[in-house]
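Moderator note: this is an archived Q&A kept for reference. The question asked for a predicted structure of one protein chain; the sequence and the answer are reproduced below.
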Amino acid sequence: MTGKLFPRSFKTEYLTAAQGEGIYIYDKEGKKYLDGCSGALICNLGHCNEEIIEAVMAQMHKIEFAHTSRWRLDSVSEAAEEMASLAPAGMEYVWFTCGGSEAIEAAVKLARQYYTERDGGYSSKSTIISRWNAYHGSTLGTMAIGGSIPRRRIYAPLFKENPHIAPHYCYRCPFGLAHPSCDMRCARQLEEVIKRVGPGNVMAFIAEPIVGSSVGALVPPDEYWPLVREICTKYDILLIADEVMTGMGRTGKNFCVNHWGVKPDIIATAKGMAAGYIPTGGVIASNWIAEEIQKGTGAFTHGHTYTGNPLSGAATAAVIKYMKKHKLVENVATLGIKFGEGLKKIGESNPIVGDVRGKGFMWGFELVRDKAAKTPFAKNVGTANVAMKECLARGLVIYPGGGMVDSIDGDNFLVAPPLITTSEQIDELLEKLELGLAAAAAKLA
């Protein structure tokens, strides 16, 4: 009897990744692929970075695991210091997890415990408001908070539902309005829902600063996040920024909210934290949230076996030091301008590209059947997968998604290379992408 791997899809033929080097992956036949999506916006430093590998191996030779209920670990403390150095001022407390879903769960539980501690052991604040078309993780709790219908549909009967508001989907405004005359109707809907539910019952609003794979790098108007911050403050509601995908320099800032000068109360992040070398995530809390718990019960009522494990700590500290040493955030901010201009140029000339949006090294393409009418392809066409396969054939990996138009139709993909990508490698990526999308358009004509 032989064991069989349970794949993500039984209907997909997978390539075998045999080796990685820098921004490239090689299959078992030796073909070279440019990792144009950093795995899933994880491999920020590329593949097989010797400095990170050495840091993890050095920790492995010291101690591989010690449970945080009894032990303090130098590598984890150092990682917390490095994480806090990237965060907005006054956000110095870091809780480590093993990934993004865990980070979101921890952030939500922290918000609930904060109000319980603050209000003398009981609080009616337990409702979380989020947005449709959002993705916040794959556990039952995080899927209930999220608003990506294709991902949540079959599991919805298991959820505790919370209110959702419309996203800042300007390309397909849910209200049929146009920016800037819309007066930020999508953000103001948050206040309407808070009033309807009752401010005393709402504990948090959670959102991705730039919506990731569920819509394809959906960038908000500049007024959006400052207005959301203002509303949350007005009604005593915690603002949680889901920076799982957008954090750690991905958009040309340490954290994406920095683009708008907004300070959330809690940041949940992952992916680029340890750059794929060890499964890692984390929560960065405002000092006053942690201090409320410190002076109350004194303990966060939460934890997993691998919370704050020493290997994650070693990898995270090494990644951040490498980012600082090589000025990778600055690299993204500078080259992101060239990258965006090149991507938009491709979108303008390709008949199936309806919209190109993004910041830094995080960009999305929305694919349409009719460019003028913004008509999406039907789901059964599999347009995003067609584009992915044509790009793969030319040695480029992209990240497909879909279902964002009406919860069924709609195709998009992300292009998000490692932060170490050079100007010459951007040229290579753009060339491969242009050829791949041209071939996809010809196939779908």
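Archived answer notes: The mean pLDDT is 97.
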